[in-house]
Structures are given as C-alpha cells and as structure tokens.
Write a structure and sequence with these properties.
The protein is an all-alpha fold. It contains three helices and no strands. Helix 1 packs across helix 2 and helix 2 packs antiparallel against helix 3. The longest helix has 17 residues.
C-alpha cells in the first residue's frame, strides 16, 4: 500500500505513466491538505494532540515529504562541441 501511495505521489496521481497527471508538488500539497483536514477537522478548539494522533501525523508527513528526495528538475542547456556543433 505504501509503495502504491508513494508512486501516486511521485507520478502526480497518473499511474499509467503517460504524463497526464498533475505536478508532483500539487499532489503532495493536496495530500498534506487532506491529512490536515483529517487530523484537525474535528477539533473545535486549539488543544494538544493525543500521542497516537501525533505519531500518525509524523509518520504520514515523513512519508509525504520523502517524495521530495526523488524530484528532479530538468534545466535546458546548450553545449558547444569541439567540432563547432551545438547540442
């Protein structure tokens, strides 16, 4: 289940790999928002979390943020070869 969830986050919820999913940043942001709503949506006042909820929050956030280790940004560059061609 964790592998599938990690793959969904990394692929932007596009499990087909066709590249038609949303960006990874948007997917992770939505997942954090949903986690926040599930954790704190029931609270009517500001109070400390119970230990089990706090542990769940830390575990879920670690999972969500671990995706950022695998995000790669491609930056277009040009390179001049010795024969004069530009790649």
């Amino acid at each position: 289940m964790m592998k599938e969830r990690f793959a969904k986050l990394l692929l932007g919820e596009d499990m087909s790999g066709s590249g038609k999913g949303v960006s990874t940043a948007v997917t992770v942001s939505n997942a954090i928002t949903n986690l926040y709503a599930s954790m704190f949506g029931q609270h009517l006042k500001l109070e400390p979390l119970h230990l089990e909820k706090k542990m769940m929050w830390k575990r879920e956030m670690n999972c969500l943020l671990s995706v950022y280790d695998y995000i790669v940004e491609f930056i277009p560059m040009s390179h001049s070869l010795q024969n004069g061609k530009t790649m």
